[in-house]
Amino acid sequence: MSDITGQVAVITGGARGIGRGIALELGRAGVDVVIGDLLSVPEIAEEAATTVRLLEDMGRRSFALQCDVRSEEDLAALMATTVDRLGRLDIVCPNAGICNLSPATELSVEEFRRTFDINTLGMFLTVRAALPTLLAQGHGSIVATASITGLRGTTELVHYAASKAAVISMVQTLALELGPKGIRVNCILPGTVFTGISAAQMDKHGVPDEMKEQILDQVSAGTTPLGRMQTPADMGQAVVFLCQADNVTGTSINVSGGSAL
Ligand SMILES: NC(=O)c1ccc[n+]([C@@H]2O[C@H](COP(=O)([O-])OP(=O)(O)OC[C@H]3O[C@@H](n4cnc5c(N)ncnc54)[C@H](O)[C@@H]3O)[C@@H](O)[C@H]2O)c1
Predict the structure, then answer these.
(1) Which CATH number does the domain housing residue 95 bear?
(2) Mutation choice for ligand 1 from 18, 41, 75, CB with most ligand atoms inside 8 A
(3) Do 72 and 97 reside in the same domain of the chain?
(4) From atom 38 of ligand 1, which residue's Cα is the shortest distance away?
(5) Which of 24, 55, 135, 177 could form a disulfide linkage to 60, CB 3.0–4.6 angstroms apart?
(6) What is the DSSP track for 194-250?
(7) Residues 110 and 158 in one domain
(8) Within this chain, do residues 206 and 178 fall inside the same structural domain, yes or no?
(9) For 80-118, what is each residue's pLDDT tens digit?
């Protein structure tokens, strides 16, 4: 296993939820972290400031930048500013994503395209923006956030499941292309984590805010061999493992407590 202390990571969608979990676990492993997220949305800017403060409280260097993963310009600036301010770039986590439930019969072409633009093309553009730096130095670890829905069908998520299956596929192809150049590419497959995405899905089923986490936890506990919902920290720990595991590439780690086997 590699020692990743002192390395620098960029995480897209790192302001909150799973991205924050990844940021904090990498921080605990000694990694400095840059967050790229939609800071033009005031609520996201506040969440990003909290993530940065939590990292700084651990003694890590950290800052957040406005970055929409649909924008090659934003992504280029995110990578360049990271290297300018922190001196290096070792770990890239394309994590930004959206997930809006819709039966196939009601799904709009716009929502299908938006999901692919952010979850799929956004992952690819994030990797590509980092490649000039990673290739020049001959090392790097890329860990994307896909989903167990990329492995199996999920009702009302035809667009989302396909967008994440494409991420799993890109991880395999990129691992083949980039392995000989010293760059490893892997992904995590989260199961069920209580975050902004899952809370918004429950809005569509009329679940009151105060009951959302408890209901999700109860449903997960009943359908998960390990008996509990997953947490952002569970995801971060899997990412840290993939960053340290220096002979692992092209793989997807299922972090669902065994709920999708
Ligand atoms: N929560 C779950 O149960 C679950 C399960 C499987 C996979 N995932 C995946 O985990 C990742 C993180 O989601 P989460 O659950 O933490 O949800 P979240 O909504 O809490 O976090 C998503 C983050 O991505 C950011 N984002 C959205 N669109 C963006 C864009 N265009 N550019 C940059 N940033 C953008 C948001 O601002 C937010 O900070 C997503 O890729 C999601 O598909 C989540």
Answers:
(1) 3.40.50.720
(2) 18
(3) yes
(4) 13
(5) 55
(6) -SHHHHHHHHTTT--HHHHHHHHHHHHHHH-TT-S-B-HHHHHHHHHHHHH-TT--S
(7) yes
(8) no
(9) 999 999 999 999 999 999 999 999 999 999 999 999 999
